[in-house]
What does this fold into?
Amino acid sequence: MRECISIHVGQAGVQIGNACWELYCLEHGIQPDGQMPSDKTIGGGDDSFNTFFSEMGAGKHVPSTVIDEVRTGTYRQLFHPEQLITGKGDAANNYARGHCTIGKEIIDLFQTNLVPYPRIHFPLATYAPVISAEKAYHEQLSVAEITNACFEPANQMVKCDPRHGKYMACCLLYRGDVVPKDVNAAIATIKTKRTIQFVDWCPTGFKVGINYQPPTVVPGGDLAKVQRAVCMLSNTTAIAEAWARLDHKFDLMYAKILRKRNLCALLLGMQIGEATVENRMEFPQKIKNRNIIGFSNTNTGYLSKENKTLI
It folds into this structure.
């Protein structure tokens, strides 16, 4: 049995991680105090929970993770005290401080099959179906429909239009009532669409996984419980749109800093040219990398200097 160790860093990372562990407990039938009921049917009747949880001597299941900010939460009895690491340090919503000083030692470079080159490492996450409980009563989406939804901007976690870019690789994980035949048919249909383009050197970059356990929802959440769902990670040149927006916002912020020299003290000792300018110069390179991969500026979602004011 393989083991997954999760490390959640920063305020947003810890909050998202805490929500993930709540969902893991619901999926495997583990209570907030770490106890699993004797009825094994709740957890699926197997020991798959060992991938994320370690069983202690008293029958308590604790996450195999390093996490904090859960000591006073609902699931405070779930985590083992010896696996809690406490520290202090705040970036004060300053990206340069978190990236270049406090967070520099915990930044890790990794390679996956979604990343063809080291500098092209910004996957786009998509989930479908995003549907409310009221709407779920009247319709159940098929495998083809949720697959098509993954390529729509409304289902993406980053605001960009994938129709303006080219895909390098796609990794899809299906859950629930899904069979390989339907998945292969849905992907074959996707490849025939002209609105979804792949780079010339990677025409069939799909990797697919199927988990027959239906997705679980958090009680009181906004998402409805559905029979099937899919999560996709893709590497597309369209994400250059996000960098162009960030480029424009940085220019506006940096102009204000230059006009108000006294705000430089908020950088906590760093010189302006030491971190902010260095990071600013990386944005055009990130966009340029997408243009080179896509072989066409018009299809990569790149916005020129003249159009940046429209972002």
